[in-house]
Amino acid sequence: MLQKRLTQQISHLLETSDKVELRRLLKHMHDADFAAAIEDFPAQLILQLLLLLSLPAQCHLFVYLDPQKQSDVASSMSRNDLAALFSSMEQAARADLYNQLDTQQRQTLMPGLAQAERDDIRKLASYPEKTAGALMTSGYATLRSNWTVSKSLIKLRLEAPDKETIYQTYVIDDQRRLLGTLSLRELILASPDSLIENIMLPEVVSVQVTDDQEKIPQIISYYDVIAVPVLDDESKLVGIVTYDDAMDAAEEEATEDAQKSASVAALDSPMSKISLWELYSKRIGWLILLVFGALLSGAGLAFFEETIAANIALVFFMPLLVGAGGNAGSQAAALMVRSLATGDVEYKDWTKVLRKDALVAMALGLSMGVTVYFLGLLRGGPEIALIVALSMFFVVFIGSIIGLCLPFILSKLNLDPATASGPLVTTIVDASGVLIYFGFATLLLQL
Amino acid sequence: MLQKRLTQQISHLLETSDKVELRRLLKHMHDADFAAAIEDFPAQLILQLLLLLSLPAQCHLFVYLDPQKQSDVASSMSRNDLAALFSSMEQAARADLYNQLDTQQRQTLMPGLAQAERDDIRKLASYPEKTAGALMTSGYATLRSNWTVSKSLIKLRLEAPDKETIYQTYVIDDQRRLLGTLSLRELILASPDSLIENIMLPEVVSVQVTDDQEKIPQIISYYDVIAVPVLDDESKLVGIVTYDDAMDAAEEEATEDAQKSASVAALDSPMSKISLWELYSKRIGWLILLVFGALLSGAGLAFFEETIAANIALVFFMPLLVGAGGNAGSQAAALMVRSLATGDVEYKDWTKVLRKDALVAMALGLSMGVTVYFLGLLRGGPEIALIVALSMFFVVFIGSIIGLCLPFILSKLNLDPATASGPLVTTIVDASGVLIYFGFATLLLQL
């Protein structure tokens, strides 16, 4: 409601080209909210609005638009306006926008920029998605070890408007090798004459440009730092990833894992914006692949045709058994996938985890076996009850173990453990369940 | 490996009580790593180590120990040592520790603290878990609107050692009502004579003490702020939640959702530390509950006994059909649960999402129906193929719709949408699948 009123208000101000009132409005609210209010405007109108604002205000607003909108607006801009906007943008945002543009747009844009800026954009835009390099910004502040605190503070004040953060600074040598780090708080508290080398923290936790972005939020959260420095393969400082970009990465990773855990290929945009075709194509692949897994269960059933034909009652218990195995497997897989993702459990802990969880799997199997024994007695007599209870124990036990091991196996094969999804585990456990259940039944009923 | 060597080194220094070397070691590494290295020491040994350190160093190290270890170490401390440590701890950490202690420990501790500190602890410890109140710290810096920038900077420098952050400051009136906010960067860049009221940002995004912690990382990430202020029911500022605590909360929430999405009750500790009994008890409840859901499928099968007995081949296709429906349902549920959790989709979007996704569900059903038609032809003849294909279409379509709606229904009932897990959806869809499949079969085979 509020947003709708705001959108109308902005529309009105735009129609009357009321610059003063627009700027006042923007000053009194957060850019993110303002950007959300104009999100659905046509690109041409957003452009018109941006051009009413000062360049820094343009930037602040522009970076909150969603990437597709940014690229649409950029396409309608004149070369000069775009170059001006680009030059004032923070580097990481700039590289992201650059990646959104098509070849022609890039060619239009580049001549308007300074050489250093062109190099910077090309460099940042060259790192593969979801790596530290793609996430980092080059807008960090550096100090030298032989500077005094007061000299450093003066420099920081001068640089503050252009830097993504000045709250954490990095001490480098002539080759840009990282010597240490200092927070602004420590600088403010230190005596003005102290030398940086005497007060800096010499051991800095850093990541490599090629590292997976997944690591970064873990590091920031574990060490309670505001940013993590990024080094290239020559150990030179090339950027930092700040906590806010790390938080976005963490959310992206958790969303991707949640999607994979349900056998959906990772979506490229949020559900609210995704196209029907993309939503379909990200789901159908796994659904069809899993059909072939389910054929195994069907083949298992066909193999036991005689047993089934002679004892139709066995079929009634099948959903119960096979379902319980799949559920236990999904539980174990989800627990493992998440523990591997947060770094709580690592690949090397496999055997330890297996030993511990095998006991739990056994206890679960026993409890479930006892539960269905009574259900079996009630609905099929003592013979069926025994078959169902025994099968339940093994199906739940083996289902749990499969769910537990699959993420480790995928991780060993350098695949994402999150692919060990509920549906995949369920399909595998279903086939094992059919074999165990009807195997037992054939054996025990023949005795 | 590295950690093991470090652990041995620390053990050795402890045995020889080498204070100087211990302090040197601690200075050269991050407290989090040091704490991880001593995590498995007995409480008595950790206490001995802490007492070799200065009070601030004790604090820094202590807060990185896990909560159980903190409480063990606290139990072995003398009343005076504990009170001293407590007084130097940051307030949020203090309240967490207080919550870990038993009644007797609390009674031992309280008399050693100043009245203001006791009140502060009791207040912070009184907010329910997983609310903004429980997550917040009272270690924030406040300014007054009629102060100048230079006066404010002097005050911040004085307070810096005691505050959790000085990078974001809050402007309050005599009643502690929040008037605005300023970042340290803005303060540094402003002219020293400016009045705070003229440069502060008057619209501050805040949360209520009773708000769910889930909201906070979303706000921090959306507005790119370093902390969110927390207000009580009289709109007075009572604390702030900083980005690092928000990141921990986000990870906790994502883990909880991942667990719920596999029908595991939320675990109280990470997998690596959880007891066998807890792991068992968090899984068995849902497993047994779902047994009763699966009984529905069994009853459905019993109902169609005649059809099955006459056409055993129908059974072979059951895992395929029922599995595919469950998989499609799990996909839809996981996508919705995650979208609701990140705020990308809200409850009010239900009908819009349903309209859009019903088309996708139909397309998925069609594709799957066509796929299995050929499998049916190959393995059972044209009649079976038709039954299987038709059933597949409906099972996948209805499975998707159930998976899509369940999170919204749970959310409407004020339950956590994440409970709409794969196993729950699978169990419900299984039963519908059995009815649809054998219903069609009975109908078509009679014709």
Automatic annotation (TrEMBL), chains A, B:
Protein name: Magnesium transporter MgtE
One Gene Ontology cellular component: plasma membrane
Subcellular location: Cell membrane; Membrane
CDD domains per record: CBS_pair_Mg_transporter
Keyword Heme in record: no
Family annotation (InterPro entries): CBS_dom, CBS_dom_sf, Mg_transptr_MgtE_intracell_dom, MgtE_N_sf, MgtE_transporter, SLC41_membr_dom, SLC41_membr_dom_sf
Keywords: CBS domain, Cell membrane, Magnesium, Membrane, Metal-binding, Transmembrane, Transmembrane helix, Transport
One GO MF term: metal ion binding
Highest taxon in the source lineage: Bacteria
Transmembrane segments: 284-304, 310-337, 358-378, 384-410, 422-445
Domain CBS: 200-256
Chief location: membrane
Biological role: Acts as a magnesium transporter.
Membrane topology: Multi-pass membrane protein
Quaternary state and interactors: Homodimer.
